[in-house]
Design brief:
By secondary structure, the protein is of the alpha+beta class. It is about 35% helix and about 20% strand. The chain has helices spanning about 55-60, 85-90, 100-105, 115-130, 150-155, 160-175, 185-195, 210-215, 225-235, 240-245, 250-255, 255-265, 295-315, 350-360, 395-410, and strands at about 10, 20, 35, 45-50, 70-75, 80-85, 110, 135-140, 145, 180-185, 200-205, 280-295, 320-330, 335-345, 370-380. The strands form four sheets. Strands 8-9-4-10-11 form a five-stranded mixed beta sheet. Strands 12-15-13-14 form a four-stranded antiparallel beta sheet. Strands 2-1-3 form a three-stranded antiparallel beta sheet, with no helix packed on it. Helix 11 (about 250-255) packs antiparallel against helix 12 (about 255-265) and helix 13 packs antiparallel against helix 14 (about 350-360). The protein is globular and about 75 Å long. Its cofactor is Mg(2+).
Length: about 425
């Protein structure tokens, strides 16, 4: 971890100059951001996480927002997608209902998410990561694992220095900041990247792993959420140190396969490789309504529009999906998910929508909903998608019409043509 003895040599994260032992500030530029660690040049598994990604991009694009609390989210009935650190200090958190966020931070500026812009920036950063190593495993639009083993000869520097140079390049060329975690395994690299946000760079070495983990809460372990943490607390387990004192067989008997994960990660054992083939497992879109909806025709219009968004993302991403998933959230915040597996993968809005409608028909019984979403999982090769339907001739005609609509939208924009389901929806 940072905080290693100043007797160690180090380098400055701002100007990258090597530093003599004993200095608390960079001898060249005066920065206090010195990186020292006894295992600094021996570790190669990194986790890079963009700091308040959506909010940082909006502040970059509008300097007037620089010193203001900023929330990215959707309207008074929506939830917080992310918030800048100024808003977080005042209690705003991701996934918090918007009305609660504005109660905590009433002077915040609220901006609706611009996913196309965020995806574009995310792809820029991903391409820059892949210049460092081919072993990049994305976790989301704004974070990824990197395996830097074997790259020292290429970059003529150990991974820690290469990653610090990369973070500085992101600030200079992209205009946002990232935090870096470096360790010997994925679990601890991800934990490290959270330690000093924003603009952090933390290292967790092998020698300190057990002591570092001992006092941390069990929720530090991947997969331990609030519900499971409550189960562990009822059993007298609050910290990772307690897990370190338990036998593997005891944990297996109590918690099944999760018990083995608890045993291993509590000891800093994580042999998962950085897998660059890991990609999104689903593609979806959802919307939170300004007012609760219960009428089937109103829900149908939103479902069609969302199906078209999902289909567009599948086309642009070169993907198809075989399982359609409907998501609904009731007025009292209860979540319902329904799914259906198709005979063949699809990337057509028509098939996604019609399957979603079948699922929705069973739920639209007068219940008031605050959110609806549709998506596909079990992603598959798009060349296998949507073979001609010899039974339903109408489906083939609709697929041909959809292809024609897509060509018009690609040329003239998404709003250039609409179906009857969505026509005038935003004006109702």
């Amino acid at each position: 971890m940072n905080g290693a003895a100043p007797s160690l040599t180090g380098f400055c994260r701002d100007c990258l100059c090597e530093q003599r032992p004993g200095l608390s500030r960079c001898a060249a530029c005066g920065s206090p951001r010195l990186l020292r660690h006894p295992e600094r040049d021996l570790l190669a598994i990194a986790h890079i996480d963009c700091d308040a990604f959506y909010a940082s991009i909006e502040k970059r694009d509008n300097p007037e927002l620089a010193d203001k609390p900023l929330i990215i989210g959707g309207g008074k009935r929506g939830v917080v997608s992310t918030a800048c650190y100024i808003a977080r200090i005042q209690g705003v958190r991701s996934a918090m209902p918007m009305f609660k966020a504005l109660e905590a931070c009433p002077h915040a500026v609220v901006i609706k998410p611009n996913m196309e812009k965020y995806v574009r920036v995310g792809r820029q950063i991903r391409a820059m990561m892949q210049e460092l190593t081919p072993l990049v495993q994305p976790l989301s639009i704004d974070e990824a694992f990197l395996d830097m083993n074997g790259t020292e000869a290429l970059h003529r520097a150990p991974p820690a220095q290469v990653l610090a140079r990369f973070a500085a390049r992101i600030e200079r060329e992209i205009g946002i900041t990232v935090s870096v975690g470096l360790s010997y395994c994925k679990f601890l690299a991800k934990v490290a990247s959270d330690l000093q946000k924003p603009r952090g760079f933390s290292i967790i070495g092998r020698a300190e792993a057990l002591d570092f983990l001992r006092e941390r809460p069990v929720t530090t372990i991947w997969g331990v959420g609030k519900a499971f943490a409550a189960t562990l607390e009822a059993d007298g387990i609050r910290t990772i140190g307690t897990l370190q004192e338990m036998e593997e067989n005891d944990l297996l008997r109590r918690y099944g396969s999760m018990g083995q994960r608890l045993y291993r990660l509590a000891r800093g054992i994580d042999e998962r490789p950085v897998a660059p083939e890991s990609i999104a497992k689903s593609v979806s879109a959802e919307t939170t309504f300004h007012d609760d909806l219960s009428r089937p025709e109103a829900l149908t219009a939103h479902l069609r529009a969302l199906s078209e968004k999902v289909a567009e993302r599948l086309r642009h991403g070169g993907q198809a999906g075989q399982t359609v998933v409907l998501k609904l959230k009731t007025a009292d915040f209860k979540l319902r998910t329904r799914n259906r597996r198709l005979e063949n993968p699809t990337r057509l809005a028509d098939r996604i929508f019609r399957t979603g409608m079948d699922l929705l028909d069973r739920e639209a019984d007068g219940t008031r909903f605050r959110l609806i979403g549709i998506g596909v999982s079990d992603l598959a090769d798009p060349t296998l998608a949507d073979p001609p339907d010899l039974v339903d001739v109408g489906a083939t005609r609709r697929a041909t019409a959809e292809e024609a609509m897509n060509r018009l939208r690609d040329k003239f924009g998404r709003g250039s043509i609409e179906t009857g389901y969505t026509f005038g929806r935003d004006r109702r």
